[in-house]
UniProtKB/TrEMBL annotation:
Transmembrane segments: 33-56, 68-89, 101-119, 139-161, 181-202, 222-245, 252-274, 286-308, 320-340, 346-364, 371-389, 395-414
GO molecular function, one term: protein-N(PI)-phosphohistidine-sugar phosphotransferase activity
Keywords assigned by UniProt, alphabetized: Cell membrane, Membrane, Sugar transport, Transmembrane, Transmembrane helix, Transport
Stated name of the protein: Permease IIC component
Length: 437
């Protein structure tokens, strides 16, 4: 344990800290997390339109509600790239200390993103000119990485121009909103010129567009790299080790995975609607499955403590953490018990999520448990309810089984801690009795 601690403190934790403190990582993380409301609302409408009861589907068609329920996902989940590029740029402006320009930068990023998208044309009979319209295939999850790269480029160029003071100057007394509007002119002109040239350059290649190039050369390979069981196990191990040594493991790996998971939503939802196998198993819900009760899958630990604790120390702790645990909040447990740097809890804390992952993967592969869709739900969503929203009663039941597995893995280690605490309390009580006598 001492040698591992020395290695983590010297080699691993400094790198993880730099990653989590990186301003671009923070911007992407905050931007993607801001999408939660849009994604949840779109998912609810989508699920309501996908309930596989024939009478219910007939009712939706006859009343026209089917169109309503399909429209909301089309303008939320299916257009996620549009919201990503704005929100990441908006959050980046805040992170880099330019809150006053956040909306301006967000809008320029959005327009730049649209400038990269090829237009479709149709020639109606008798019309003088062709009608051009936006190819919506590029504004959804296919454009997730393009949205990130666009936001980063726009923010960098925009802030560079502001730093060099290459802006239109207005006389004193002009309202701030007018000043901001004219401040935007030169950066917007330069940035949109650059992105128009990028669009033109890619139109001369076999990729046709920058979005196609980024999707094929970057997004697809990263999806393939992170979409396997060994890769997912490694990521979870990294997160758990960081947590154990006092670094927020989720904040380190989630900003890297969030854009990938967002790109999974459209194909997963399409497969769910069609009654087909979910193509991307290792999505955000697979991660949430391993954090039932919080990082380390500690809901089982909390339940074991609440039922079996004999020492006063852990009885009081159990009463404190039992309710937050059901809503996947375990910071009081990690920092208050503590789990951090607790050698007795190292094995269950690090490896319980891995056990749940491997067993869940096997059950999903053989068809006993449904693969979760991978919807972005609030982290505090309780089990069973979140399982149903992820499209499967069998997955909701598996969440309960995962908690029972957590109870079993944590139980022997907790009994060691509780017995030790009970001995210390008895020794303390005897010493106090001797003093009183």
């Amino acid at each position: 344990m001492h040698s591992m601690q020395a290695f983590m403190e010297k080699k691993f934790i400094p790198v993880a800290t730099k990653i989590s403190n990186n301003k671009w990582v923070q911007s992407i993380s905050r931007g993607t997390m801001s999408l939660m409301g849009v994604i949840v609302v779109g998912a609810i409408f989508s699920l309501l339109g996908s309930i596989g009861i024939p009478a219910y589907q007939t009712f939706l068609k006859n009343t026209g509600l089917a169109n309503l329920l399909s429209y909301v996902p089309a303008v939320t989940i299916n257009a996620i790239g549009l919201y990503m590029v704005f929100l990441i740029a908006y959050q980046a402006a805040h992170v880099f200390g330019h809150e006053d320009l956040a909306v301006n930068i967000g809008i320029v990023s959005l327009v730049s993103f649209l400038a990269l998208i090829p237009l479709k044309s149709t020639q109606e009979k008798g019309a003088m000119q062709a009608i051009n319209y936006l190819n919506v295939d590029y504004i959804g999850s296919r454009g997730a990485f393009t949205a990130i790269i666009t936001a980063m480029l726009v923010v960098s160029i925009y802030l560079y121009i502001i730093k060099k003071n290459w802006t239109i100057k207005m006389p004193e007394g002009v309202p701030p909103q007018v000043i901001n509007a004219f401040t935007d002119v030169i950066p917007a002109f330069v940035i949109l010129t650059i992105f128009s040239l990028i669009r033109w350059a890619f139109s001369l290649t076999s990729y046709i567009s920058a979005t196609d190039f980024i999707y094929k050369m970057l997004q697809k390979p990263i999806e393939a790299l992170t979409g396997s069981l060994p890769a997912f196990i490694i990521l979870i191990l990294i997160a758990q080790l960081l947590w154990f040594f006092g670094i927020h493991g989720s904040f380190t790996i989630l900003p890297i995975l969030m854009p990938i998971w967002i790109s999974y939503i459209n194909p997963n939802m399409a497969a769910y609607h069609a009654g087909k196998v979910i193509p991307h198993m290792f999505n955000i819900e697979m991660y949430n499955m391993l954090t039932i009760g919080g990082s380390g899958a500690t809901l089982g630990f909390v339940i074991v403590m609440f039922i079996f604790a004999k020492s006063q120390q852990y009885k009081k702790m159990a009463r404190l953490v039992i309710v937050p645990g059901f809503f996947n909040i375990n910071e009081p447990l990690i920092f208050g018990l503590p789990i951090i740097m607790n050698p007795i809890l190292f094995i269950p804390f690090v490896f319980t999520p891995i056990i749940i992952l491997i067993l869940g993967y096997i059950l999903m592969k053989i068809g006993l448990v449904g693969v979760p869709i991978g919807l972005f739900l609030p982290a505090s969503t309780p089990i069973v309810f979140s399982g149903i929203l992820q499209g499967s009663w069998s997955y909701a039941i598996w969440q309960v089984v995962a908690v029972l597995i957590s109870c079993v893995t944590y139980y022997p280690f907790f009994k060691i801690m509780d017995a030790k605490a009970l001995e210390e309390e008895k020794a303390g009580a005897e010493k106090l009795e001797q003093v009183e006598n």
